[in-house]
Specification:
The chain has 14 helices and 9 strands. The radius of gyration is 23 Å and the shape is globular.
Length: about 325
């Protein structure tokens, strides 16, 4: 009898230890971003969570927090080091606050097209810039680069030539790369948090904004702007960053699974957005929005002197290295 009780006690203890071990082995990662739930970036993040849970047999759980629910762009970048978030999406222009040269890719008319963009993504130049960014962000890792889309100006009037933007109060993200284009064409750039843009357009606080077509759709800016002007002045990229301290807690196997899932996701997002961009102009027109095809050459000419000016956050050598990459000549 005593022996049976002893065996039973040992079994219960073993079960408790096993349960505690499982609990300890489960790592939960917070994946935060500023995008709406219908945007490809959020759809992709949810797929990452599912893929990682399956491939790690539940050892790693990823919870996704969309729509700025855990903070705005710069707050999320800072949160990686503070431990409030573990994985984030962030625009290259925003993390240039930590390492300025990487912001070069988000400056107007520095990218020639998708072939050129992919050449940059796979280049030694991007790898070197990512390594420097990581050093300046407490070792947080650049896991992937995805295409966010070509930025176009929305407004309540047609914008066909640079002079059409003179005096236009246009919302831009609060990052240096986004100021160059509106300033070069005589507009009045107005930095503003992403979550505030729709209401600002609706109330006339700003006259215009600029974003990729997928974002214009996801954020429903077409409801409060009558014209989409295809300026294509910036080809945006989104970085996926992962907390070093969180990665260090994972086994080598689980770390590899997480990083591969994030790379796979970047390919998914890039392909999804590229496909959508080829289809959305027609969709917007069906919604009653005027889509204006723009001769980009005059806009490029207006910006060119600014790209050659002194005091830019990237070197002439880096700029020339970017322009020397193949694609979309």
């Amino acid at each position: 009898m005593k022996f049976d009780k002893l065996i039973k006690g040992i079994a219960i203890s073993a079960m408790a230890v096993a349960a505690a071990t499982v609990a300890q082995a489960t790592e939960t990662l917070k994946f935060a971003h500023v995008y709406e739930v219908n945007h490809p970036l959020h759809v992709g993040a949810e797929q990452v969570a599912k893929q990682v849970a399956e491939q790690t047999d539940g050892r790693v759980e990823i919870k996704v927090y969309p729509s700025s629910s855990l903070g705005k762009e710069l707050e999320l970048s800072e949160g990686l080091s503070l431990g409030t978030v573990d994985i984030i999406y962030t625009g290259i222009g925003f993390v240039s606050a930590f390492y300025a040269p990487i912001g070069m890719a988000d400056y107007p008319f520095t990218m020639r097209g998708m072939e050129h963009w992919r050449a940059y993504r796979d280049s030694d130049l991007f790898k070197a810039q990512s390594a420097e960014l990581s050093k300046n962000m407490n070792g947080n890792e650049v896991a992937a680069l995805s295409y966010y889309g070509s930025r176009h100006v929305t407004s309540n009037k047609p914008i066909l030539v640079p002079s059409d933007m003179e005096g236009l109060k246009i919302r831009v993200p609060n990052a240096p790369a986004y100021l160059m284009f509106p300033e070069a064409v005589g507009a009045n750039p107005t930095p503003m948090a992403f979550a505030e843009v729709y209401l600002a357009l609706q109330q006339g606080v700003v006259d215009a904004q600029e974003n990729p077509l997928t974002t214009i759709q996801a954020k429903k800016f077409y409801e409060v702007q009558s014209n989409i002007n295809l300026t294509g002045h910036i080809m945006n990229s989104t970085l996926t960053l992962v907390s070093k301290s969180k990665l260090d807690k994972l086994s080598d196997e689980d770390r590899a699974i997480v990083l591969q899932a994030l790379k796979d996701n970047a390919d998914f997002v890039t392909d999804t957005i590229e496909t959508a961009e080829n289809e959305l102009a027609a969709w917007f027109e069906e919604q009653g929005v005027t889509v204006n095809v723009v001769d980009r050459a005059p806009f490029m000419a207006a910006v060119a002197p600014s790209l050659m000016a002194e005091g830019l956050p990237f070197s002439k050598a880096d700029f020339e290295a970017l322009q020397a990459l193949p694609g979309n000549k």
